[in-house]
DNA sequence: GCCGTTTTCGGCCCGACTGTTTTCAGTCG
């Protein structure tokens, strides 16, 4: 069910963690991490590579290539199994708690025999961590806070993980005979940022063949329920998937019902009741006679309720019903509207692929323009220099001449320092086509300082886009504590766009913050922040999030033709004129 | 364990912050 590259990546990451937990060589662990990342981001399917092919992947040498080959041939990696047998799985799980790394996880296991999050919680409540060397009251507080963050995420998975599984299942079921329609519904269809369980819907006359095939899918770990209308499984990764088979005639009603959200469905059912109708997953009926009115398509059902078809990404009871009744639903931005990507990396800094490969991949996706924005020197771990970035610019200009259909922009991702200043003097920045600026450290300055910091960055005439504006990481790190209304107002005033970072671990800004920012007249840029060609495909999640924020193509600067985009980028540099669109 | 070489070892991203410590270990980006 999972791409072999990702399986291998996960195994190598696990090995790296276990090396650290067992006190092994930190450089060895890093070597495995780097190889894991490179394989995860590698364009070719590793299961189709031989040892020589594997070793062409950066950071994969003889030892790791051999282990990967062994795994691909036998399904096992003995080195990982060895070290697994020494450390209970729960100890590694402890490392998922922010601020709890391998050393502390190890200490908890060795000294207190703690090997799971619940055990750790018990120990915390019984104050058993107090006697442990290196664990003070603040550490306790941080661990509790970290566990809270993780539990808030619950068992939900990032949207891309659910999407990959769902699309594979839909593909498998769609080819069975008797399948008239098949798709995923639920929060995944609404493109929520995390997914609790996946709903798959099939329209067919007979349900049994689909239910049976479903329970036999590779990657099924457990069949939770097996019926004629609904079957639920749990995958080996712990994700629950529900399959529902409806008669072809009920397709629209089923899709509407199982797409949700619950709040949206309550509103639509209320509307039905007011019209002396009844709406269920089987159709829209006369309340009294029970006679079916419509059920075949969502459009028919919404129409009979006096509504236009409502895009799934809006179905959250956030005013979409009222807007629909007024005929004022927004024409949401779509993936096809996106003409360019304005935030991407290469292996000149922390990307995985060289410039040429990133550009080729972008061109294959049909983009009309593409910005390369590697990290600037102040993020010192990336080792950027003036010479390197200028050499890159020359190379970008050369490549630009080669692509007829796609123009290349040379930009950079600046680091917003604690005072709101960025890398390089103004005159150096002026020669970039665009500058993204982002916060990468000093997250806990306090609300006032953080607000000032972001406003200062917006006021910099060379800064065009604020990258991943809150710096949140889903399930790991909350967003910066700042006065967003002040920041949004500053963006609107200075013609600085806010990024909607499409990476599934970020989706930053979030849908709700997009809605808030839009009221200030802010413009947005949906960017992938790609570090490998594969990441360019994350665009769909950024677009989904933009849709959930009710954005139209007009709100998103990278849907604009290049000439208009350039005017937006230039306008800021010339005398700080306000943004226009 | 990988990489590069001035090729077979020595360096590996580096700095800052936090909390605990009393000079530093662990974690993070």
UniProtKB/TrEMBL annotation:
Its main location: cytoplasm. GO terms for cellular component: cytosol. Its cofactor is Mg(2+). It is found in: Cytoplasm. It comes from the Bacteria. The keyword DNA repair applies. It catalyses: 2'-deoxyribonucleotide-(2'-deoxyribose 5'-phosphate)-2'-deoxyribonucleotide-DNA = a 3'-end 2'-deoxyribonucleotide-(2,3-dehydro-2,3-deoxyribose 5'-phosphate)-DNA + a 5'-end 5'-phospho-2'-deoxyribonucleoside-DNA + H(+); DNA(n) + a 2'-deoxyribonucleoside 5'-triphosphate = DNA(n+1) + diphosphate; a 5'-end 2'-deoxyribose-2'-deoxyribonucleotide-DNA = (2E,4S)-4-hydroxypenten-2-al-5-phosphate + a 5'-end 5'-phospho-2'-deoxyribonucleoside-DNA + H(+). Residues 52-71, 92-111, 127-146 form the Helix-hairpin-helix DNA-binding motif class domain. GO terms for biological process: DNA repair. Residues 340-418 form the Polymerase/histidinol phosphatase N-terminal domain. InterPro entries: DNA-dir_DNA_pol_X, DNA_pol_lamdba_lyase_dom_sf, DNA_Pol_thumb_sf, DNA_pol_X_beta-like, HHH_MUS81, Hlx-hairpin-Hlx_DNA-bd_motif, NT_sf, PHP_dom. Repair polymerase that plays a key role in base-excision repair. During this process, the damaged base is excised by specific DNA glycosylases, the DNA backbone is nicked at the abasic site by an apurinic/apyrimidic (AP) endonuclease, and POLB removes 5'-deoxyribose-phosphate from the preincised AP site acting as a 5'-deoxyribose-phosphate lyase (5'-dRP lyase); through its DNA polymerase activity, it adds one nucleotide to the 3' end of the arising single-nucleotide gap. Its EC number is 2.7.7.7, 4.2.99.18. Keywords: DNA damage, DNA repair, DNA replication, DNA synthesis, DNA-directed DNA polymerase, Methylation, Nucleotidyltransferase, Sodium, Transferase, Ubl conjugation. NCBIfam families: PRK08609.1. This is DNA polymerase beta. The keyword Cell inner membrane does not apply. It holds the Pfam family HHH_5. One of its GO terms (molecular function) is phosphoric ester hydrolase activity. Residues 3-316 form the DNA-directed DNA polymerase X domain.
């Amino acid at each position: 069910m999972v791409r072999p590259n990702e399986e291998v990546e996960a195994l190598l990451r696990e090995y790296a963690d276990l090396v650290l937990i067992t006190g092994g060589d930190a450089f060895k662990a890093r070597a495995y991490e780097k190889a894991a990342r490179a394989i995860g981001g590698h364009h070719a399917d590793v299961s189709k590579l031989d040892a020589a092919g594997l070793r062409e992947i950066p950071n994969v040498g003889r030892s790791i290539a051999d282990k990967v080959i062994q795994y691909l041939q036998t399904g096992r990696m003995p080195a990982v199994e060895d070290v697994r047998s020494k450390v209970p799985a729960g100890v590694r799980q402890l490392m998922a708690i922010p601020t709890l790394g391998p050393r502390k996880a190890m200490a908890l296991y060795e000294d207190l025999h703690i090997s799971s999050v619940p055990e750790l919680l018990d120990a915390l409540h019984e104050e058993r961590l107090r006697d442990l060397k290196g664990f003070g009251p603040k550490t306790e507080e941080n661990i509790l806070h970290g566990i809270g963050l993780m539990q808030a995420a619950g068992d939900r998975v990032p949207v891309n993980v659910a999407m990959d599984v769902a699309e594979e299942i839909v593909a498998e079921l769609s080819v069975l005979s008797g399948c008239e329609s098949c798709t995923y519904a639920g929060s995944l269809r609404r493109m929520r940022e995390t997914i609790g369980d996946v709903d798959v819907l099939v329209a067919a006359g007979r349900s049994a063949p689909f239910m049976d095939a479903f329970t036999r899918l590779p990657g099924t770990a457990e069949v939770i329920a097996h019926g004629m209308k609904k079957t639920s499984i749990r995958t080996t990764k712990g994700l629950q998937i529900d399959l529902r088979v409806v008669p072809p005639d009920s397709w629209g009603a089923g899709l509407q019902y199982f797409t949700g959200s619950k709040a949206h469905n309550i509103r639509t059912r209320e509307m039905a009741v007011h019209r002396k109708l009844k709406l269920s997953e089987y159709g829209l009926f006369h309340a009294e006679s029970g006679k079916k009115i419509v059920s075949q398509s969502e459009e028919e059902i919404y129409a009979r309720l006096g509504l236009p078809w409502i895009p799934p990404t809006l179905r959250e009871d956030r005013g979409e019903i009222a807007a629909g009744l007024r005929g004022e639903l927004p024409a949401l931005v779509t993936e096809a509207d996106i003409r360019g990507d304005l935030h991407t990396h290469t292996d000149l800094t922390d990307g995985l692929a060289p410039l040429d490969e990133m550009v080729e991949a972008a061109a294959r996706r049909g983009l009309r323009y593409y910005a390369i924005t590697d990290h600037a020197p102040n993020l010192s771990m990336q080792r950027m220099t003036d010479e390197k970035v200028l050499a890159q610019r020359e190379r970008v200009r050369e490549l630009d001449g080669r692509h007829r259909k796609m123009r290349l922009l040379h930009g950079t991702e600046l680091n917003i320092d604690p005072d709101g200043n960025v890398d390089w003097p103004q005159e150096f920045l002026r020669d970039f086509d665009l500058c993204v600026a982002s916060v990468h450290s000093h997250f806990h300055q306090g609300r006032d300082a953080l607000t000032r910091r972001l406003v200062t960055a917006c006021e910099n005439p060379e800064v065009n886009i604020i990258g991943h504006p809150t710096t949140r990481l889903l399930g790991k790190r909350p967003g910066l504590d700042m006065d967003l209304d002040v920041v949004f107002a500053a963006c609107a005033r200075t013609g600085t766009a806010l990024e909607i970072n499409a990476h599934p671990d970020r989706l930053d800004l979030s849908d709700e913050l997009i809605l808030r920012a839009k009221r200030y007249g802010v413009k947005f840029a949906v960017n992938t922040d790609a570090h490998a060609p594969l990441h360019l495909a994350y665009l769909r999640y950024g677009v989904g999030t933009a849709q959930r924020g009710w954005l139209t193509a007009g709100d998103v600067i990278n849907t604009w033709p290049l000439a208009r985009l350039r005017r937006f980028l230039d306008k800021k540099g010339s005398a700080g004129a306000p943004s226009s669109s």
